C-alpha cells in the first residue's frame, strides 16, 4: 500500500512523497496498591503521508488503510496544497536507495510470549520485601514499520520492547521509583527495578523539610534523564529556529562542562529507541551533539541540513528532527566512588514537572520526587522533602563535575525519548522551596 | 458497518463478560503551523477506532483496535475478555464499578459557522494576518510560532447496563509562543484559546488584536520592568493565574483515582485524603467547581465516557472540601455514585478521572476594589514557568506581566515575581474574590499512556494577604 500511495502522490503532482505505515501490537498491565488495576491491548495500524507540491508541505494520517482511503487522502492533500503557501527553505527529502545494515538486539520473540502478569508479580513481590505499597506499569509488544518515498527508498523494520516502571512506598512521603526497559528479555530485570525502588523508599525514612540554598547534588539516572533528553531535543534544528532552544547561535561554543558528552545513537545495538532508518529512510547513525562540553552539531533531516549546508544526521522527523537514543557518555568513576567523595550534598533520585520560563535562556524549574537523601562525608544520613530545583539548564550542564561509569536506560511516563545515562554529580545546584 | 453498529456489535460479542462497554470514536482534524511567518505545515487527519472494556470476575481488560471489520472487532473483544479472565485469579482487589442509571442520549454542539464550511485558505489567511499584526507593532519578535487546530469528534458509547450515548463535538484551538527581544534580553509568552464550537469562536477571540497588544507588552516588560521587591506583600492574581491554580491545586488533588493511589506511579497521588472531606482548606470566600456543561467550553461534554450524565461538581464550597471528581471505579470505592468525570482522549485510551472546566466562582468585588486598601503588593496578570509537586502541595508560578501595587494604585512593571507556596496557604490567604470570571484553554496531561485532554480553567481576580516573596528564587 505504501508503494501505491507514493505512485498516487506522484501522479497527483507531488514533488516529494513519503509514506510511513506502522503496525503495533502492544499489551499493558497497570497496577496500584499491589494489585493489577487493568490489562490493556492495542492492535492498531496507521498510514502517514507527507507530500510536498512546489515546496508546499502537506501531511495526513489515516487509520483505515485501503486503496480507496489512500486515493481520497492524496486528493485531499493535493487540494490542501493549493491553499498552502510555499516554504521556501524546504530542501526536499533524501535521495535513496540506501543499504541498511542489520542492527543487533532489536527483536526478541520471547517478549511476545512472556507471561506479563508473572513479571509484574515478580517485581511487586521484590519491592514488597522492603516497602508496603507499589504502583506501576508494564508494557510489552512489537511494532513494525514500512517506508516508501519518492526518493527511491523502500525499507522496513520491526522491533520488540518490554518496559516496567515501579514506584514503591514505605509511607506517604517515603517512596522510590525505578524502571527496567529493554528490547530483549535478557536485559529485562523487573525484580531489580522493584528492589531498587523499595530500597530508595526505605532510605527516605521520615523526611524532614528541605531548605533553600546551593547544594552539591548526585542525580540518579532517573532524575537526570529528563534534562538530558531535553538538552538533546533542543539540538533539533526545528526547535532552534522556533525559539524553543537555548542552543541557538552556540555551535562550537561551550554549553556544558567538559565532563559532558551527549550523543544521539539511533543505530545503537539493543538501544531502546533504535531504528534502522529515520522518517525519510536515511540509515540511522550516531551523532555527537555535545562533545566534551562544546556544542558540536544540531540534529537534522535532509531539508534542514541543506539549509545549514551540512549533511543530514538521520534524525528526520520530516518537520522536526528528533533524537532516538540519547546517550550521556559515562565517566570513569563508580557511583560508590562519587558518593564517597561528597562531603555535603543531596542524592536526588527522580524529578517531574519540568517547565521552562524561557527556552532561549533555558531558565527552568523541576520538582524532585521520591527519595531525596542527604549525604554527609560520603554517607546517607537522612532524607528531606518539599524542595524544587530552580536552575538554568546551560548553567546546570556547566556545573557537572563528574558522571559515573555505568549507564542505565531510562524511559517512562516523564521521559518519552529513551535516555542511556549514568549517575551525574553537579555542584552548587540551586534549590528553592515554598516560602509559606 | 456504520459507526453505531460497530459499538453495538462489539457489545454483543462481549456478552459473556460480567460487564462490557464499547466506545467507537472518530475524529477529523486540521492543523496549520506558521513559524516566523512561513507556513511550516498543513495537516489534515482522520482517526477512528474502537475501545472495548470488560470486567471478568473482578479483572478489567480493555482492547483497542482500528481494524473495524467484524472478525477484527470480535478478535479485539476476545482479547479483552481473555486477558481479564486469565488474570482474574491473581487480581488481589476486584475491580468494581458503581451502579449507575442507564442513560440514552444523543447530543451535539451547534455550530453557527460550521468548521467544515471554513476553507483552508481562510485558516491560513488568518494565521498570516495575525503574524503581520504582531510585526506591525515594530516589536523585535525573532521567533513566532502559531498553531491553529480544529477537529470534529464523534463518539458512540454503549454498555451492558443499557446506556447508549452519541455525541458530536467540534473544537477549535489556537496556540502561540512568542519570543520578544530588547536590550540584550529576551522574554517568551505561551498561551492558548480554545472552545467547543464552530468557527465563530475563533472570530470572537480577535487573536490578531490581542497578540499585537501582547507584543507591545512584552517589549514594555523587557524595557521597563524593575526588580521585584522581597518580603511580605499582598497579592492580586488575574483570572489567568487563578485558573491555573484552580486546575493544578484543586482540580488535580481532588481526582479520586489519585487519592486512591491508581495514578501513583505516573501523575502521582494527592495530599488530600478521603478523611479531609468536610474540612477547611481555604478561606470562607473560596468556592471552586468543575463543570463540563459550560456552553462553548473547551472541556465540554454532557455524558462522560462511562455513559454517566455530567453535572457541576462543587470541589470547595465556602472554603470547605466538598466533593471529589469520580468515575465509576473510584465511586464504588467511596460507596457513592459517579459524578460523571470519566474521560478518554481518543478511542485508544481508557476512561479515567479527569477535570473538564475547573474554576473559582465569582465573588462580589469589582476588580478595582481589590486593589484599594493594599499598601504594598504585587499584581500578577500573566505567568511563564509553573509547576506543582505530584501530591499537589507545593506550587510555583513565575509572573510575566506583573505590577507593583502601592497605596491602592497599580504602579510600574516588576520583573519575574515568583509565587512559590503550599496549597493550603494559597487558598487560605484569599480574602476577596472578584466578580468577573474568565477562562483559559489547556490540554491537561494524565494517564498511562499519557492522555492530553481539552479543559478550561479559570476564575475571577482574587486578592491574597501577606504572601512571602523570598530572595532565593
3D structure, described in words:
The complex is a heterodimer of chains A (436) and B (473). Chain A contains 10 helices and 22 strands. The mean pLDDT of chain A is 97. Chain A is globular, with a radius of gyration of 23 Å. Chain A is α+β, with helices and mostly antiparallel strands. Helices cover 22% and strands 39% of the residues of chain A. In chain A, helix 1 packs parallel to helix 2. In chain A, strands 7, 8, 13, 14, 15, 16, 17, 18, 19 and 22 form a 10-stranded mixed beta sheet that branches. Chain B has 473 residues and is α+β, with helices and mostly antiparallel strands. Chain B folds into 2 domains: 3-224, 2-Layer Sandwich (PmbA/TldD fold), CATH 3.30.2290; 227-469, no CATH class. In chain B, the strands form 5 sheets. In chain B, strands 1, 2, 3, 4, 5, 6 and 7 form a 7-stranded mixed beta sheet that branches. A 7-stranded mixed beta sheet of chain B has the order 8-20-19-16-9-25-22. A 6-stranded mixed beta sheet of chain B has the order 12-11-10-15-24-23, covered by helices on one side. Chain B is globular and about 70 Å long. Chain B starts with a helix and ends with a strand. At the A-B interface, strand 1, strand 2, strand 3, helix 2 and strand 4 of A face strand 2, strand 3, helix 2, helix 3 and strand 5 of B. Strand 2 (35-53) of chain A pairs parallel with strand 3 of chain B.
Global outline of chain A: globular
Strand tally of chain A: 22
Number of strands of chain B: 25
Which runs of chain A of at least 5 residues are low in confidence (pLDDT < 50)? none
Shape of chain B: globular
Radius of gyration of chain B: 24 Å
**Helix amount of chain B:** 10-25%
Q: Average pLDDT across residues of chain A?
A: 97
Seen as an oligomer or otherwise, the chain set is heterodimer
Counting DSSP H or I runs of 4 or more residues, the number of helices of chain A is 10
Number of domains of chain B: 2
Provide the β-strand percentage band of chain B. Answer: 35-45%
What's the alpha carbon Rg of chain A, rounded to whole Å? 23 Å
Runs of chain B in which pLDDT lies below 50 for 5 or more consecutive residues are none
Largest sheet of chain A: 10 strands, mixed
What gap, in angstroms, lies between the N and C termini of chain A? 61 Å
- Largest inter-chain contact set: A-B, 85 and 92 residues
- Helical content of chain A (DSSP H or I, runs of 4+): 10-25%
Query: Helical segment tally of chain B?
Result: 10
> Which structural class is indicated by helix and strand composition of chain B?
alpha+beta
Strand residue content of chain A: 35-45%
Amino acid at each position: 500500500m505504501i508503494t501505491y500511495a507514493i505512485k498516487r502522490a506522484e501522479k497527483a503532482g507531488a514533488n516529494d512523497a513519503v509514506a510511513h505505515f506502522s503496525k503495533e501490537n502492544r499489551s499493558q498491565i497497570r497496577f496500584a496498591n499491589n494489585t493489577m488495576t487493568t490489562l490493556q491491548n492495542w492492535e492498531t495500524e496507521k498510514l502517514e503521508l507527507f507530500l510536498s507540491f512546489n515546496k508546499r508541505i502537506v501531511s495526513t494520517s489515516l487509520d483505515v488503510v485501503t486503496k480507496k482511503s489512500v486515493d481520497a487522502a492524496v486528493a485531499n492533500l493535493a487540494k490542501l496544497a493549493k491553499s498552502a503557501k510555499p516554504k521556501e527553505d524546504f530542501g526536499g527529502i533524501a535521495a535513496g536507495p540506501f543499504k541498511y545494515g542489520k542492527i543487533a538486539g532489536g527483536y526478541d520473540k520471547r517478549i511476545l510470549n512472556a507471561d506479563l502478569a508473572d513479571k509484574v508479580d515478580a517485581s511487586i513481590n521484590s519491592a514488597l520485601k522492603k516497602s508496603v505499597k507499589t504502583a506501576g506499569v508494564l508494557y510489552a509488544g512489537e511494532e513494525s514499520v514500512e517506508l516508501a518515498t519518492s526518493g527511491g527508498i523502500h525499507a522496513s523494520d520491526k522491533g520488540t520492547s518490554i518496559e516496567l516502571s515501579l514506584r514503591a512506598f514505605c509511607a506517604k512521603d517515603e517512596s522510590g521509583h525505578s524502571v527496567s526497559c529493554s528490547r530483549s528479555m535478557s536485559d529485562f530485570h523487573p525484580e531489580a527495578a522493584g528492589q531498587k525502588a523499595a530500597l530508595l523508599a526505605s532510605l527516605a525514612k521520615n523526611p524532614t523539610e528541605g531548605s533553600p540554598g546551593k547544594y552539591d547534588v548526585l542525580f540518579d539516572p532517573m532524575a537526570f534523564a529528563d534534562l538530558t533528553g531535553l538538552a538533546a531535543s533542543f539540538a533539533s534544528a526545528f526547535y532552534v529556529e522556533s525559539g524553543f532552544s537555548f542552543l541557538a547561535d552556540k555551535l562550537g561554543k561551550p554549553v556544558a562542562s567538559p565532563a559532558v558528552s551527549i550523543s544521539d545513537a539511533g543505530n545503537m545495538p539493543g538501544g531502546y529507541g533504535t531504528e534502522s532508518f529515520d522518517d525519510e529512510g536515511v540509515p540511522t547513525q550516531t551523532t555527537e551533539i555535545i562533545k566534551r562540553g562544546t556544542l558540536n552539531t544540531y540534529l537534522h533531516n535532509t531539508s534542514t541540513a541543506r539549509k545549514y549546508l551540512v549533511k543530514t544526521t538521520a534524525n528526520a522527523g520530516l518537520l522536526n528532527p528528533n533524537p532516538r537514543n540519547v546517550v550521556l557518555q559515562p565517566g570513569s568513576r563508580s557511583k560508590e566512588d562519587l558518593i564517597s567523595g561528597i562531603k555535603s550534598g543531596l542524592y536526588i533520585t527522580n524529578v517531574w514537572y519540568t517547565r521552562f520560563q524561557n527556552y532561549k535562556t533555558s531558565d527552568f524549574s523541576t520538582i524532585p520526587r521520591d527519595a531525596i537523601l542527604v549525604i554527609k562525608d560520603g554517607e546517607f544520613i537522612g532524607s528531606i522533602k518539599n524542595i524544587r530545583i530552580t536552575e538554568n539548564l546551560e548553567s546546570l550542564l556547566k556545573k557537572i563535575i563528574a558522571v559515573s561509569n555505568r549507564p542505565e536506560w531510562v524511559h517512562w511516563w516523564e521521559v518519552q525519548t529513551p535516555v542511556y545515562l549514568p549517575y551525574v554529580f553537579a555542584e552548587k545546584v540551586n534549590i528553592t522551596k515554598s516560602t509559606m | 458497518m456504520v459507526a453505531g453498529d460497530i459499538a453495538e456489535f462489539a457489545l454483543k460479542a462481549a456478552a459473556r463478560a460480567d460487564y462490557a462497554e464499547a466506545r467507537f470514536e472518530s475524529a477529523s482534524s486540521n492543523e496549520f503551523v506558521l513559524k516566523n511567518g512561513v507556513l511550516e505545515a498543513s495537516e489534515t487527519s482522520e482517526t477512528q477506532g474502537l475501545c472495548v472494556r470488560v470486567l471478568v470476575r473482578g479483572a478489567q481488560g480493555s482492547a483497542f483496535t482500528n481494524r473495524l471489520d467484524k472478525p477484527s472487532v470480535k478478535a479485539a473483544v476476545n482479547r479483552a475478555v481473555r486477558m481479564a479472565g486469565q488474570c482474574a485469579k491473581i487480581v488481589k482487589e476486584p475491580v468494581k464499578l458503581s451502579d449507575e442509571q442507564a442513560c440514552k442520549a444523543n447530543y451535539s454542539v451547534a455550530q453557527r459557522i460550521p468548521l467544515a464550511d471554513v476553507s483552508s485558505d481562510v485558516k491560513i489567511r488568518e494565521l498570516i494576518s495575525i503574524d503581520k499584526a504582531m510585526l506591525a507593532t515594530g516589536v523585535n519578535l525573532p521567533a513566532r510560532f502559531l498553531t491553529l487546530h480544529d477537529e470534529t469528534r464523534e463518539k458512540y458509547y454503549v454498555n451492558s447496563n443499557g446506556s447508549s450515548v452519541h455525541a458530536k463535538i467540534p473544537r477549535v484551538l489556537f496556540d502561540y509562543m512568542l519570543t520578544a527581544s530588547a536590550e540584550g534580553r529576551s522574554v517568551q509568552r505561551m498561551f492558548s484559546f480554545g472552545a467547543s464550537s464552530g468557527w465563530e469562536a475563533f472570530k470572537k477571540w480577535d487573536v490578531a488584536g490581542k497578540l499585537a497588544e501582547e507584543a507591545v507588552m512584552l517589549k514594555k516588560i523587557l524595557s521597563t520592568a524593575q526588580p521585584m521587591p522581597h518580603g511580605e506583600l499582598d497579592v492580586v492574581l488575574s483570572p489567568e493565574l487563578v485558573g491555573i491554580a484552580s486546575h493544578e491545586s484543586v482540580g488535580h488533588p481532588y481526582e479520586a483515582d489519585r487519592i486512591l493511589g491508581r495514578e501513583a506511579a505516573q501523575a502521582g497521588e494527592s495530599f488530600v485524603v478521603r478523611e479531609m472531606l468536610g474540612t477547611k482548606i481555604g478561606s470562607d470566600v473560596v468556592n471552586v467547581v468543575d463543570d463540563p456543561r459550560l456552553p462553548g467550553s473547551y472541556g465540554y461534554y454532557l455524558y462522560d465516557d462511562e455513559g454517566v450524565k455530567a453535572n457541576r461538581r462543587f470541589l470547595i464550597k465556602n472554603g470547605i472540601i466538598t466533593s471529589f471528581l469520580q468515575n465509576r471505579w473510584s465511586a464504588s470505592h467511596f460507596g457513592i455514585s459517579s459524578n460523571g468525570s470519566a474521560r478518554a482522549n481518543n478511542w485508544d485510551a481508557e476512561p479515567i478521572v479527569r477535570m473538564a472546566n475547573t474554576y473559582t466562582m465569582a465573588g462580589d468585588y469589582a476588580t478595582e476594589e481589590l486593589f484599594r486598601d493594599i499598601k504594598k503588593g504585587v499584581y500578577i496578570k500573566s505567568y511563564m514557568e509553573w509547576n506543582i509537586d505530584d501530591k499537589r502541595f507545593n506550587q510555583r508560578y513565575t509572573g510575566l506581566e506583573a505590577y507593583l501595587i502601592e497605596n491602592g494604585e497599580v504602579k510600574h512593571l516588576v520583573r519575574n515575581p515568583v509565587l512559590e507556596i503550599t496549597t493550603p496557604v494559597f487558598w487560605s490567604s484569599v480574602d476577596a474574590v472578584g466578580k468577573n470570571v474568565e477562562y483559559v484553554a489547556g490540554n491537561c496531561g494524565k494517564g498511562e499512556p499519557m492522555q492530553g485532554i481539552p479543559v478550561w480553567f479559570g476564575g475571577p481576580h482574587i486578592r491574597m494577604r501577606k504572601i512571602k516573596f523570598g530572595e532565593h528564587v
